[in-house]
Specification:
- The structure is a homodimer of 190-residue chains.
- Chain A is α/β, with parallel strands linked by helices.
- The first copy, chain A, has a single domain, classed as Rossmann fold (3-Layer(aba) Sandwich), CATH 3.40.50.2020.
- In chain A, the strands form two sheets. An eight-stranded mixed beta sheet of chain A has the order 6-7-5-4-8-9-10-11, sandwiched between helices. A two-stranded antiparallel sheet of chain A has the order 1-2.
- In chain A, helix 3 packs across helix 4.
- Chain A starts with a helix and ends with a strand.
- At the A-B interface, helix 2, strand 3, helix 3, helix 4 and strand 5 of A face helix 2, strand 3, helix 3, helix 4 and strand 5 of B.
Chain lengths: 190, 190
């Protein structure tokens, strides 16, 4: 999506080979009009997939996922992070290990909001190692729903997340794909 | 706002005198069309206040705040929760004590996103004790910005949050005000 690529070129900061800061329009300060356009773009890409619900992981995925859900007129489900590990029979639960933050957390989903008849689109802000997306997949599959695909705003294509998901038969749609980065240098993948 | 009151009557669950569950349309599953209407209602209420930015606290305030910011065409700032207490000179920081969750956390705001010229509208999902809103106010005031008001979807008017904020000269706008609750009973305030 050209609009996002232009914004990344203009306001994104490539700190080093791995860290891209998009604090000024995606993470800390959000540009709602850009978010709305990105939501429409995602909805348009998946328009023939009979999506019944959008799912995301709290909290940085909420903004793009909400705009995608609004563009599709379907509900948004927020997969909740919980520090506790208390078993609850009303919830699907799975443990996620975050390498970047060096912590464990539990991702939960209330059983009543997703059924086997649903077609789910997962939306998140970033795809890098794919640990959050893989956990979301694992959790959503417990409901036997169909996973229609995963949409992310920015993919770091040089990290293994994309390949991990595609090898499981999941369609990955990224609005901007970064092939390579270094300090003050960003190369997009075509 | 009648639409929200109707939805609360229909799908909200008053568990006891204090707990209202709105998991099915506000917290866990989100109704994006309702969220959009609520965002427009908030934008309309504050249309003469020259709002330059909307601010919210991650993560349950993000959805209504994003829709309000979109309706106003202004940026949204997400005040970030951090477990760590490392001082950082690029950030405004304040500690919040959550009585409901019995934890402490730090709320942070990057200095570069808010200035003394800004007119800020704070948007959140719930107002009860007012601890999160008070912390957001404290944090935003460090930037010397003007606080134009606080908008919340649901106010528990029988708890002290509303009074705490109004006594500081802050306008509080709630889309639904609950005067009284008990198991399976909700009385709205006019």
């Amino acid at each position: 999506m050209e609009l996002l690529k232009e914004k990344i070129k203009q306001d994104g900061i490539a700190v080093n080979k791995h860290i891209l800061k998009v604090d000024s329009f995606i993470n800390h300060q959000i540009d709602p009009m850009l978010m709305q356009e990105m939501g429409k773009d995602i909805a348009d890409h998946f328009k023939d997939r009979n999506i019944t619900k959008v799912a995301t992981i709290e909290s940085s995925g909420i903004a793009p996922a909400l705009m995608a859900a609004a563009a599709m007129s379907v509900p948004l489900i927020i997969l909740k992070k919980q520090p506790s590990k208390i078993l609850n029979q009303d919830l699907y639960q799975t443990v996620v290990t975050s390498f970047t933050k060096e912590t464990n957390y539990e991702l939960t989903l209330s059983k009543k909001y997703i059924s086997a008849e649903d077609h789910i689109l997962i939306v998140d802000d970033f795809l890098a190692n794919g640990e959050a997306a893989t956990a979301a997949l694992r959790l959503l599959r417990m409901s036997h729903a169909t996973i229609a695909g995963i949409a992310v705003l920015i993919e770091k294509s040089f990290q293994p997340g994309h390949e991990k998901l595609v090898s499981q038969g999941i369609e990955v749609y990224a609005l901007a794909r970064i092939a390579e980065m270094s300090e003050n240098y960003i190369k997009f993948q075509n």
